[in-house]
Structure formats: C-alpha cells, structure tokens
Amino acid sequence: MSAKGQRPDGRLRSLEMTTQVGIDLVHTDEVREAVLVHGERYLNRVYTEQERQDCGSDPWRLAARFAAKEAAMKALGRDGEPLPWRAIGVRTNASGASSLDLHGAAAALARRRGAVSLSVTLIHEGPLAAAVVLAELG
Amino acid sequence: MNDNVKVEIRRVLRDHARLPVDIDSIDEQADLFQAGMSSHASVNVMLALEDAFDLEFPDQMLKRSVFESVAGIAAAVNELQPEAA
Which residues of chain B neighbour A34 with C-beta distances below 8 Å? Predict the structure, then answer.
C-alpha cells in the first residue's frame, strides 16, 4: 500500500514522498525446529551478531526478528534480487525500542528506493511473532 | 536432470516445507509459496537441501525465485553441484 506522506496540518512533506508498509507473521515452531535441527548454522546464516547477542536461541525473539527482516523486504519493495537475511538486522535499545540496521544488499536497495527512514515494531504472543515496518521513501 | 535429485528435493520439501498438501501432488513448476510454504520454512528447506546435497547456497542465490518451485531448486542444485545432475 502506498500513500502520500502528509503532515498533521495536511501539507505534503514532499511532493514525491511516499510511505510503504511491510508486515510479516512467523510461527515460532518453525524457528524452534530450525534451532534444534540446524543450530549454529541456522543462527549464523540468518541473524546478525547483534541479534544473536540480544536473542540467544529464544525462538520467540528470533521469530520476531525474522518477521522484521521479511517485513522490511516488503516495505522496501524487494523485486527478485538476492537479499541475505543478515543484511537486515534489528537493534533494540535499553528502553526496549527497536530499529533496523541495513547492510550490504539491503542498504543498497534502500538507497535505490530513496528510503529516508525505516521504523519497525515487533510483537510475539503464543505461537506467533509478527513485525510491521514503515518505510518513508523520498 | 537426474530424477533422483528431484526425488530428494521432494523428500526435503515433505520434511521441512510444512506444506498443507502432499508434495507429490504439486507440479515441479508450481509456486511453493502460493502452495503454502512460508518464508521461514524456505530457510529450513534451504538448510536441509545443503545437508542433503552437501553444498552451500551462496548469497547471490538467496532470492525467492530459487526456492519457489521444485524446478527452480533443481536448477540451483544443478548449478552448484553439476555432478548431481
């Protein structure tokens, strides 16, 4: 979905500014299976060092971060190019607020799309984890 | 393409893709994501394929098209491990 970015007073931020939203939902059972079956190989292929420090092997926290990676790809309009999962990482500050770190192919995609800012929110409840990413594109 | 490769790919998909339908009922060109494979399940499939064929998918192959069908996976395995074909 796309919408012109408007300020509360109704004026456009920029004539070309758009907002893109990405959302993803992950079953924590799938993450638990991956950790059990593939262990370190799975964790190293998918998650950044920061994410591994923050999550250990907790399937709920890992699932929320995987959802964030997929949601970010959707918000940025991935269109078939290779995009390793580790190119997108979630960082959580001391107050619990999350933000996205983009590296390599993901950072290049964001530049091509003219991304001005990315916001992310995560949630996990029961067997599911989800993330929503909002991308402002200039 | 060696039929044994596609048989092994279907075994991996049966064990790891969590499809809501029998993998043998899915055409080799059919879209596995549309058939119900989640993005995360595709990670489990990728890692299981690496174990099954003793290979590693490089970053440039980490794209949806590689894992979206039996035929796509078979082409990638063939590219990475020509002796399997």
Answer: 40, 43-44, 47
